[in-house]
Write a structure and sequence with these properties.
The complex is a heterodimer of chains A (about 160) and B (about 725). Chain A is mainly β and about 160 residues long. Chain A is built from four helices and ten strands. Chain A has a five-stranded mixed β-sheet. The longest helix of chain A is centred in the C-terminal third of the chain and has 6 residues. Chain B is α+β, with helices and mostly antiparallel strands and about 725 residues long. Chain B has 23 helices and 22 strands. The chains are: A mainly beta (about 160), B alpha+beta (about 725). Chain B: Involved in the transmission of sensory signals from the chemoreceptors to the flagellar motors. CheA is autophosphorylated; it can transfer its phosphate group to either CheB or CheY. Chain B: Keywords: ATP-binding, Chemotaxis, Kinase, Nucleotide-binding, Phosphoprotein, Transferase, Two-component regulatory system.
Chain lengths: ~160, ~725
């Protein structure tokens, strides 16, 4: 049933969403597929000075300079030791194109809004900043991530 | 677009050019230019605007242009002297004309508040007041007609004669200015059948001869379809450096006997030219012997430059046509959509990167340097570089286009403030990328307003200080070490440092007990929210002050400085990159990272000896270079790549000169080479990083960071102060 709806789910005003799910360590996360431009393999990044630790550096994406965010570190987990097995999800966040370093991309999910449960009130700041909701699927828990705050606050540190 | 609208568009575009021409011509005349061609150009500009306006029935524009034109015509014919007052009125008239054009462009056929008054002034000047009010009827139709600046000393309507006898006696000056009599004679012989005689009677004995004097006289009989004007035109550029007489003759004469053999002369000239030309395209043949096909393809691309010589030298028999042909040749341009140029530039940028990647792959594949592939790549590299340079040159424009907007601004601000001001511009021909020019207009406008409003004192104060009543604002552009430097200076009172400091304290920008150097006080005016205007005036002082100027200059990759001398005036100096797209860089490595340092800032590189480097405590070090000490900045530490400084003998120092002329040495691990790199924005997808100006993509496809040398120097200076 899900599969059928997914064919025209994107613009459905009834609240159908397509999400792309990925793994960081043992955790599963997902983001709205509309923000995703492409998925590509890991290439070594050029380190950026004066940047937060979760910014791995920049890579060349067909002539554009693409910053890479170690999503594990950004979400407060252990840093990803990037290798060829890792994957970069290229996402468009408010006009800026950013690469998200994750362990693996697992699936495309089609869900309705009511499947997404609100985030329980937990103490973690990162949870409040990034997690937009939780999805229970086949006995797994998948956190829906909002990407707006993934890049470091521009104004704050630019001054 | 509807065709008429397109034509209209073109008309207004041309109007802009004509208006610019008009204004610069009038300004040149105000500056004492006596050249009749200048007044002709000014006249033509107004005339063309009138003609075009006629075609579109822009009544008020036509009327005003007509009155203006009449006055200019009087001036052109010498009946109206080009006095300072007259020119001031004309400049105001040019402003009104510009306003009329822009309102006509916006579709408002209103007229202008000053139009009537100025019309009367102009009419009074041309002595035609009231003569014909509704003029402009006579010749709209022929707006393509361009009045010609025919040589004034002869009647233009000489009936074509069968033959002319031209007596041509060069003076020594002609040769001294590197003119060549043979070339002039060759020109002349192209006008028709000709016979050249050389009179050597004045040549003295060898013992008396002055090698730099002129002794020869030629007499050339030219027959055929030509006239006196065409003949005189041949000698246009040596006018005054020779004795020249042209006489019409009823019938052509027989050929002379003792004449110089022009045929032989020509043959010699060509024989001289051909070998030098042919050797150039030949060289690649020898180099590329194993691979002839590509060369064969290339050959027709570069036809022998001989053909380039001939059209320029060719003189049409019809003098008017000839003159016009030369004009169009000199300024032949096409209008191209800027988007297309930018697309081309982007593509070439990609090509450069791609070529570098390819070159690296070839190196990695272990092909010998002398292999055909490697050599082909070298050629490719040269070609790409040339393409890139030419493409960049398309975007380069003289700063004139923004400078010429300023005289009007100065006139307006001067009128509003009641301060007489003279604007002096220098280096208008300095070329820089179009984007830079476009984005310069606002900051420059702001700075010039400021210079007049805040910089210059009132006429009374100037008189008290013993300065001439007329203030001078100078706008200068120049190229300096791969950047363009633009200076805006005034001869006013300079910065009132007491007051600036007082205001900064009052506004809480600095602590009340802060001790600041004069330079630091001067730079306070760039602080956001700083405005010294005691009362908010119309002209400047809306709180958006110099900080906006500084930000827009920085956004262009430039820097701005101020120097001020009390009682003498202030100078703002902006230094901007010539282009926003490429950069010549020195590729260096630091702690395993590849970085690019802009080569324009580097004075020299050196391998420091351990004994030349001295520690000042903490991590601060200085290096002694030829007796002087400059701070040694460990780039790896400045960027946070390493925590402990590199030993002095393990690296290479780049001696650099920063914006204010301050020197420092950047310490890096090694130099990899020198390369032109394409600048890629870091801000587009990320944000500004302190110490990093931009990024680029190197031959291996990886991103390298371009150092922002001034920030690195400034930051480490701050840290040094903290550490000390």
């Amino acid at each position: 049933m899900n599969q059928v709806i997914s064919q025209n789910g994107q613009n459905n005003p009834g609240g159908m969403k397509e999400l792309i799910s990925f793994r960081i360590g043992a955790q599963e996360f997902c983001v709205d597929i509309m923000a995703i431009r492409e998925i590509r393999g890991w290439t070594p990044a050029t380190a950026l000075p004066q940047s937060p630790s979760f910014v791995k550096g920049v890579i060349n994406l067909r002539g554009a300079v693409l910053p890479i965010v170690d999503l594990a570190l950004r979400l407060g987990f252990e840093s990803t030791d990037a290798s060829d097995r890792n994957v970069i999800i290229v996402a468009d966040i408010g006009g800026q194109v950013v690469g998200l370093l994750v362990d693996a991309v697992s699936d495309i999910l089609t869900v309705t809004d009511d499947v997404i449960q609100p985030t329980p009130d937990v103490a973690s700041d990162t949870a409040k900043t990034f997690v937009r909701g939780l999805i229970a699927m086949d006995g797994r828990m998948i956190s829906l991530i909002g990407l707006e705050r993934v890049l470091p606050d521009l104004e704050l540190e630019a001054a | 677009m509807d065709p008429l609208a397109a034509i209209r568009d073109t008309f207004f575009q041309e109007c802009e050019e004509q208006l610019a021409e008009l204004e610069s011509g009038l300004l040149a005349m105000e500056g004492g230019d006596q050249d009749p061609e200048t007044i002709n150009a000014v006249f033509r500009a107004v005339h063309s605007i009138k003609g075009g306006a006629g075609a579109f029935q822009l009544e008020s524009l036509i009327r005003f242009a007509h009155v203006f034109e009449t006055a200019l015509d009087e001036m052109r014919s010498g009946r109206l002297a080009a006095s300072a007052d007259v020119l001031k009125t004309m400049l105001r008239a040019a402003d009104v004309l510009a306003d009329l054009v822009s309102s006509a462009r916006a579709g408002q056929e209103g007229g202008h508040p000053q139009q009537a008054a100025l019309s009367d002034e102009l009419k009074a000047m041309s002595g035609a007041a009231g003569a014909d009010d509704d003029g402009g009827e006579e010749d709209w139709g022929d707006f393509e007609f361009q009045p010609m600046s025919a040589a004034v000393d002869l009647p233009a309507d000489t009936p074509p004669a069968r033959a002319f006898v031209v007596r041509f006696k060069p003076r020594a000056d002609l040769y001294a200015k590197a003119n060549e009599a043979a070339l002039l004679l060759r020109e002349l012989t192209r006008l028709g059948d000709s016979n050249v005689e050389l009179d050597t009677s004045e040549v003295p004995l060898l013992t008396d001869i002055d090698p730099e004097a002129a002794y020869l006289t030629w007499t050339v009989t030219v027959s055929g379809d030509t006239d006196e004007l065409a003949i005189r035109e041949v000698f246009e550029f040596v006018d005054g450096d020779c004795e020249l007489s042209v006489e019409a003759q009823g019938a052509s004469e027989g050929a002379g006997e003792t004449g110089l053999d022009i045929g032989a002369l020509l043959a010699r000239v060509q024989a001289d030219a051909i070998p030098t030309i042919e050797t150039a395209p030949d060289e690649p043949f020898e180099l590329e012997a194993p691979a002839p096909p590509p060369v064969a393809d290339l050959a027709p691309v570069a036809p022998p430059p001989l053909s380039v010589v001939s059209p320029a030298a060719e003189v049409h028999p019809e003098p008017l046509a000839a003159n016009q042909a030369r004009k169009t040749e000199a300024g032949a341009t096409i209008r191209v959509d800027l988007d297309r140029v930018d697309r081309l530039i982007d593509l070439v940028g990609e090509l450069v990167i791609n070529q570098a990647v390819l070159a690296q792959r070839v190196m990695e594949a272990g092909l010998a340097r002398a292999s055909a592939v490697a050599m082909g790549l070298d050629e490719l590299e040269q070609l790409t570089r040339e393409i890139q340079d030419s493409v960049m040159a398309i975007r380069a424009q003289p700063v004139k286009s923004v400078f010429q907007r300023m005289p009007r601004l100065v006139r307006e601000v001067a009128a509003m403030t009641g301060k007489p001001v003279r604007l002096v511009t220098e280096g208008e021909a300095t070329e820089v990328d179009k984007t830079v020019i476009e984005r310069l207009a606002d900051p420059l406008t702001h700075m010039i307003r400021n210079a007049i409003d805040h910089g210059l004192e009132s006429p009374e104060k100037r008189a008290a200080a013993g300065k001439p009543a007329e203030g001078v604002v100078k706008l200068a552009a120049m190229h300096r070490s791969g950047r363009i430097v633009i200076e805006v200076s005034d001869d006013g009172g300079g910065i009132n440092r007491e007051r600036v400091k007082g205001i900064a304290i009052e506004k809480g920008l600095i602590a009340a007990d802060a001790t600041l150097s004069d330079e630091e006080i001067d730079n306070l005016i760039f602080m956001p929210g700083f405005s010294t205007a005691a009362e908010v005036s119309d002209i400047s002082g809306r709180g958006v002050g110099m900080d906006v100027v500084r930000r827009s200059i920085q956004a262009l990759g430039g820097r701005i400085n101020i120097t001020s001398k009390p009682g003498k005036g202030s100078t703002f100096t902006m230094s901007l990159p010539l282009t926003l797209a490429v950069l010549d860089g020195m590729v260096v490595s630091v702690e395993g990272q590849t970085l690019v340092a802009p080569i324009t800032a580097i004075i020299e590189t050196l391998q420091p000896k351990a004994e030349d480097v001295h520690s000042l405590g903490g991590h601060a070090r200085v290096i002694s270079i030829r007796g002087g000490f400059v701070p040694l900045i460990d780039v790896g530490m400045a960027l946070g790549y390493r925590a402990t400084p590199l030993a002095a003998s393990d690296g290479v120092a780049l001696l650099i000169e920063g914006e204010g002329g301050a020197r420092a040495a950047l310490f890096v691990d090694a130099i990899q080479g020198q390369r032109q790199v394409v600048i890629k924005s870091l801000e587009a997808n990320y944000r500004q990083v302190p110490g990093v100006a931009a990024a680029t993509i190197l031959g291996d496809g990886r991103v390298a960071l371009i150092l922002d040398i001034d920030t690195i120097v400034a930051v480490s200076r701050g840290e040094m102060r903290k550490a000390g």
